[in-house]
Structure to design on (764 residues):
């Protein structure tokens, strides 16, 4: 028997043998404690009549939170009276097994927090390196027509500077030129130069040359900006918890007793059914079911979304480079007031116009509702406008409606009273399954123009899966644009032919008559490969059009043929980019996103991967360009260690990096050639050569210390000693002799250094 438990038994038996008055006295003994079914080991317990006192420090270590009033001092030790904590705490003392069994309410066991949000990986490294790119695209047609487009960008010091140029019909036009600065800590993006600003449903938009500041959540994609579902439940015993969302198991975990907080459940936009299943060790099961509507419009409490722009309006981007007009300013701002309510507003101002108004977005148990009002004042008069929209989405049903009303005098920057625009607009849609594997959707739109004319369109669509490799789609519509109603209908069957290839046969009827077409297509892959499109239309004398595409490591290429009006027209498109990073220039596909340069110095032919997709192999310099990375996200870049020659060692083969917006990063996998060094060392003392038998030779290289024992004849041996000149010292009879040791580069795995000498008091 454990000596401590034996002592506890003797103490307890002695306490039970005394008289009743003595029983009320304090007795101290070691007992095994079982807390909510979990053995917690032995601890010293103070027993009194009807009570048990346990050390406050021990309870805190066990995760039990107790109020200060329950604590007392016994022989200068702070203990907690379990009886005073009733009914939240119950206990029994087993005199035979020397066990104290305690049952504690989960409210006193602290909170167990489980955050299911897929946040930033712990291994993620934010990195940026100076880099630049030039995108180019050339289109040439068989009629002698051509146009050229180019875009240049430089990423340096946390800034991205870009500008575009185009050449069409002999005219060179500058596109948008700007400098972008991302402030990730504040989730903010600054644009100095040309930028597109827009204010929403009742507002306008404009390209301004000036300053724009935006709350841009793409610079911190792991930030949770929308309300999420969190659930709390008490867990009284060690249990297994399962989290189900829309019938899918998303988390399973064994947890200890306490108050369980499950936060940020992974929901999809729309209605979600969640279920928490708790299975205790006694076979009991408890479930918590909850329905929650998740929206991408309502902001979480306290979260702001905004854009403020001020500058000079750009009049044209298509045919003029420096045509700027009057100053203007646009602003929009929204803030989450609660988890169900977001409020905001917009304003636009120019020399002859002020327009703006409030908006509100409401998250309902079944859908989301958005409404906005606006008023304007200009040199042409005053006006008002209103808009509202409702949407509901669920796995088996989607529905919604929207409305917009603008009176004749209402204006915004790009919505003037003299422009062609509607007086009112109404639209509605419904999508649902109807059985038999058939999905159906219907939509209707109604619009009245300022002149009183009415336009309507009603359309129904149906789709059905025909086996494993075929789909059927059919649609019918009735439209009226003021010139009388017209009926349109179409039926299409798509057959997958293996891989990415599919063939679609379509029959349609419009006001112009019946038509049919057959399309054969294969889309481009994510990596390198080819694709094509072929279209045949029997009603046009069997006219066939098509395109052949190829996406390679260095660019994209396309040849397109299109007959029209009895003429034949062919065109060629070539696009790509040149990227400068890491001291080299690389040809690649057009740069639309971020990129990286993988470096495995001096080792060619090593396969590289991005998100488990093979990108290519390193060149003769051990470099490989990786396109199409996501900015500020965790991009996993790795290499195949099996491609590393056996004479090299490499400390790691994977990196998780977050590159800047349309910028580049260096991902370096340092390799070291495995080269052993051996030789013989002699020490010269007073002109006499001596062998430092059984001494030690120490070398310092790259901040690391290497050592080798010296043999009877002065021989030494090192593993993985780097190439180069290094400081060294040899122990010669208790005295250190310092010198310089040089390891030459060699193709052999063993560098034979020959006989080295160290002159005491001098360095060589």
């Amino acid at each position: 028997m454990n000596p401590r438990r034996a002592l506890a038994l003797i103490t307890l038996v002695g306490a039970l043998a005394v008289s009743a008055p003595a029983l009320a006295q304090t007795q101290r003994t070691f007992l095994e404690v079982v807390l909510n079914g979990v053995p917690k080991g032995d601890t010293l317990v103070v027993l009194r009549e009807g009570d048990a006192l346990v050390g406050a420090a021990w309870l805190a270590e066990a995760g039990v939170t107790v109020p200060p009033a329950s604590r007392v001092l016994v022989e200068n030790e702070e203990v907690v009276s379990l009886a005073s904590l009733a009914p939240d705490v119950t206990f029994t003392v087993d005199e035979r097994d020397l066990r104290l069994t305690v049952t504690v309410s989960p409210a006193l066991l602290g909170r167990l927090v489980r955050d299911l949000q897929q946040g930033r990986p712990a291994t993620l490294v934010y990195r940026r390196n100076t880099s630049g790119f030039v995108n180019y695209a050339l289109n040439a047609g068989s009629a002698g027509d051509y146009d050229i487009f180019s875009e240049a960008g430089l990423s340096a010091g946390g800034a991205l500077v870009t500008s575009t140029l185009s050449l069409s019909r002999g005219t060179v036009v500058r596109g948008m030129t700007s400098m972008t600065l991302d402030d990730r800590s504040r989730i903010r993006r600054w644009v100095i130069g040309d930028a597109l600003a827009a204010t929403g449903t009742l507002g306008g938009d404009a390209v301004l040359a000036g300053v724009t500041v935006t709350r841009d959540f793409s610079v911190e994609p792991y930030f949770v900006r929308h309300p999420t579902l969190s659930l709390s439940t008490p867990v009284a015993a060690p249990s297994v918890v399962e989290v189900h969302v829309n019938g899918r198991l998303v988390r399973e975990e064994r947890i200890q007793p306490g108050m369980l907080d499950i936060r940020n459940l992974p929901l999809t936009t729309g209605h979600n059914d969640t279920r928490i299943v708790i299975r205790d060790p006694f076979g009991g099961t408890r479930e918590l079911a909850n329905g929650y509507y998740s929206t991408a419009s309502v902001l979480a409490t306290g979260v702001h979304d905004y854009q403020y722009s001020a500058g000079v309006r750009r009049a044209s981007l298509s045919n003029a480079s420096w045509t700027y007009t009057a100053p203007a300013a646009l602003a929009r701002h929204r803030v989450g007031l609660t988890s169900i309510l977001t409020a905001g507003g917009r304003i636009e101002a120019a020399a002859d116009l002020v327009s703006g108004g409030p908006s509100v977005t409401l998250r309902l148990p079944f859908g989301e509702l958005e409404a906005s009002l606006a008023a304007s004042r200009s040199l042409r008069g005053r006006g008002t406008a209103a808009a509202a929209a409702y949407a509901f989405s669920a796995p088996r049903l989607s529905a919604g409606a929207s409305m917009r009303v603008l009176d004749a005098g209402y204006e915004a920057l790009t919505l003037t009273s003299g422009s062609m625009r509607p007086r009112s607009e109404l639209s509605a849609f419904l999508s649902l399954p109807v059985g038999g594997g058939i999905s159906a959707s219907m939509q209707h739109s109604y619009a009245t123009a300022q002149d009183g004319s009415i336009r309507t369109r009603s359309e129904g669509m149906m789709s059905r899966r025909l086996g494993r490799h075929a789909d059927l789609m059919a649609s019918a519509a009735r439209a009226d644009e003021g010139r009388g109603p017209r009926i349109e209908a179409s039926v299409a069957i798509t057959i997958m032919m293996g891989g990415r290839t599919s063939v679609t046969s379509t029959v349609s009827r419009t006001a112009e008559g019946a038509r049919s077409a057959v399309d054969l297509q294969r889309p481009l892959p994510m990596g390198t490969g080819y694709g094509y499109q072929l279209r045949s239309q029997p009603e046009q004398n069997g006219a066939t059009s098509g395109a052949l595409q190829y996406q390679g490591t260095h660019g994209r290429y396309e040849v397109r043929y299109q007959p029209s009006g009895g003429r034949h027209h062919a065109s060629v498109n070539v696009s790509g980019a040149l990227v400068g990073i890491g001291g080299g220039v690389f040809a690649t596909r057009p740069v639309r996103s971020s990129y990286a340069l993988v470096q495995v110095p001096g080792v060619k032919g090593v396969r590289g991967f991005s998100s488990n997709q093979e990108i290519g192999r390193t060149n003769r310099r051990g470099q490989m360009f990786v396109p199409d990375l996501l900015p500020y996200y965790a991009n996993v870049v790795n290499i195949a260690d099996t491609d590393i020659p056996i004479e090299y060692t490499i400390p790691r083969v994977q990196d998780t990096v977050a590159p800047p917006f349309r910028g580049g990063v260096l991902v370096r996998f340092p390799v070291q050639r495995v080269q052993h060094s051996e030789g013989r060392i002699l020490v010269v003392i007073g002109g006499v050569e001596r062998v430092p038998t059984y001494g030690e030779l120490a070398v310092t290289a790259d901040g690391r210390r290497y050592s080798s024992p010296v043999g009877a004849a002065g021989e030494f041996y090192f593993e993985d000693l780097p190439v180069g000149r290094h400081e060294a010292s040899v122990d010669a009879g208790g005295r250190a002799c310092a010198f310089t040791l040089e390891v030459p580069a060699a193709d052999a795995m063993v560098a034979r250094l020959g006989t080295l000498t160290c002159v005491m008091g001098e360095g060589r």
Q: What stands out?
A: Helices lie at 3-17, 20-23, 56-61.
